[in-house]
Amino acid sequence: MLIAGSPQPGYTAPADTVDRARSALGHFLPLFAGAEPVPAVLPVARRLTAWAEQEPAVAEWVAAAVAGTSGEAPRADTGASAATGICLAGALMSWTRTHGVVSLEVAGHFAGMGHDPAGLLAAEIDTLADAFRLD
Q1: Distance from C-alpha of 135 to C-alpha of 10, rounded to nearest angstrom
Q2: I want to staple 73 with a disulfide (CB 3.0 to 4.6 A). Which of 49, 63, 66, 93 is the partner?
Q3: Residue 64 in contact with residue 76, Cβ under 8 Å?
Q4: 25 within 8 A of 47, measured Cβ to Cβ
Q5: pLDDT of residue 114
């Protein structure tokens, strides 16, 4: 798991761990460039914008990941912006939904529940797209 456990105050992840997490999450970022999230998502986006403001490397990573997309892309030279937080919120919410459904299925927790895990994952993706007003 890339995101697990409780972070300790002052802990900094090793560079290779950060690189692996960015490699996994970075593919989601361009999907949310230009997204217009519903009000319920905005507090998450604001908190992630604040984080990116404190960590310029995060803002630079997001800007590089979404460069060349058709939506409003965060610019590395202006630091973190609302678009940065929206992209990060979308990537984080994509990861948690995907990770949740897949890990529960792999662990067998859906056995005997009478539903199709692929259908559940599709519903999660659809509701996420709706939350960001994506077509």
Answers
A1: 40
A2: 66
A3: yes
A4: no
A5: 87
Two tokens at 90? 């979308």
8-state DSSP, 5:
S
Identity of the residue numbered 46: R
25 contact partners, CB below 8 Å, separation of at least 6: 2, 91, 92, 95
pLDDT value at residue 22: 86
**Residue type, position 22, single letter:** R
Beta carbons within 8 Å of 34's beta carbon, 6+ residues apart: 69, 70, 71, 72, 73, 83
For 46-55, b/e burial (b = at least 16 CB within 10 A) is eebbeebeee
CB-CB contact of 61 with 26 (8 Å): yes
Q: Please state the pTM of the whole predicted model.
A: 0.82
Question: How many Å apart are CA 55 and CA 22, to the nearest integer?
Answer: 14
